[in-house]
Fold this protein.
Amino acid sequence: MKRELGLLNLICILVGIVFLGFAALNAILSPQLMTTDNLFVTMVCMVMALLFIVNPLLYLKSEGRLPIPFSKRLGNRNVPQLAGTAPPLLDAKGRAVPPDVRSMVANMKQKQPSDV
C-alpha cells in the first residue's frame, strides 16, 4: 500500500511540474502575454498544477513529514491559570457559559444563611 501511495504521489508531483512548465512556456514563448487567451491558458495550467501538487503535500502533512512553520509555537501555548480561578463552566453541549450565568451559578452554590 505504501508503494502504491508513493507512486501515485510521485506521478501527481510530476504532472504538477509539467503543468507549471506549460505555464512557464506559455509566458516565455507567447509574443503578447497580456491577451485574454494567454492569461486564460496560464491560469488553467497554474490551477491544474495546484490540483495535482496539493494532494501529495496534504499526504506528507498527515504523515508528519512536512513541517508547518510556527505551528508548534502557536499550538502549544500553555496559558497559566490565575490563582483562585476555577476551570471554565461548560453547558451540556460543551460550550462555555456566559459570565452572567456563571455568576448566577456561583451565587446559587454559596451557602444560604440559615434563619435559625
Observations:
- The helical segments are 2-29, 36-63, 71-75, 99-109.
- The mean pLDDT is 83.
- Residues 2-29 form the longest helix (28 residues).
- The chain is about 60% helix and 0% strand.
